[in-house]
Amino acid sequence: MPEKFDKKILAVLMEWDYCDPKRGPSMDKEYFYKNLAKLASSVEPFWYDPYINDLPRLQEMLLEKAKAYDPDLIFFVPYLDQFTPETLDFLKERWPTFAWFGDDTWRFELNSAKLAPHFTHVGTTDPFSVLKYKKIGIAPILTQWAAQLAGAGPGPVPPGSWEYDVSFVGGYNRFRAWYIEQLAKAGIKVHCFGAGWPAGKVSFEEMERIFYKTKINLNLSNSVSQDIRFIFSSFRSVANYLRSPKRAEQIKARNFEIPLAGGFQLTNYVAGIERYLKIGEEVAVFSSPEECALQIEYYLANEAERIRVLAAGNKRAASEHTYLNRLGGILAAIWG
């Protein structure tokens, strides 16, 4: 358990996923707010969802809340440009502020570089953006996405009663569907769950159960594909490749959610993942459909090795890669 600080935090977050109550609680609420509440003596949320379509009112209400609460830190997870530079500068002059930037691999120039100067402290999940921040006079706190169990957690080694050989949990997109098709051509069936797939979206609890009851959990990229076969598979794929800003792969929460839930992870390679999980010892990686198929065949045939890897990954994720650990590190970096 990280150190608990005798401090007051005002957490400026969205309460519902994409500000839509129909989508359920947001990641901000489940991961950031709940863990900040364990790390500081007093944490007050400022849910900005009710004002997302009335930005002048949003600025007014946030300033009123800050003045009334008088926090030791104002913690932001930026969404869009809903807070004006004037509002952020006013807050920064009176209280320390922090912003978590989780998509700097493709949003640094578009968003982070413009917003970052208006905060006292910023955090980035992209190690390759640290130098970019320094070039604009900012020394960021290097952090990373993490994981949090919805339940108590089943333990590191799954039982022998597997439900799936191979599964994937994540939203549908054309590239992911193409990848699944390539694996099918190699004789590998992948059970897919998430928005857009026939099985549909699953709860956090069900997602963890799937990770635990699957022999091999795939983690497939959500960035623009560099595979020329997919790029030229349709005019739409070519157009998307040319216009999308998502050119670089990035580590995401899923890289830690799978091992924390006790699942074996086979993921597309992302530069820097070896900082967090040892390749071949705590996670398996691939860089093409052919490599993915070979890895699946290998680990299905070598169960003892697969279980050793997932147990080691589970231990590493539980000790280092939870949101409680990540946020504790950020607060320690700010408050010393």
Structural descriptors:
2 domains; Rossmann fold; 336 residues; 16% strand; six-stranded parallel sheet; alpha/beta; elongated; five-stranded parallel sheet
Strand order of the largest sheet: 2-1-3-4-5-6
Stretches where pLDDT falls below 50 for ≥5 residues? none
How would a crystallographer describe the biggest sheet? 6 strands, parallel
CATH superfamily of the largest domain: Glycogen Phosphorylase B
Indicate the proportion of strand residues: 15-25%
Order of helices and strands: EHEHEHEHEHEEHEHEHHHEEHHH
The CATH class of the largest domain is: Alpha Beta
Q: Which overall shape is indicated by the principal axes computed on the Cα atoms?
A: elongated
Terminus-to-terminus distance: 16 Å
Count of helix runs: 13
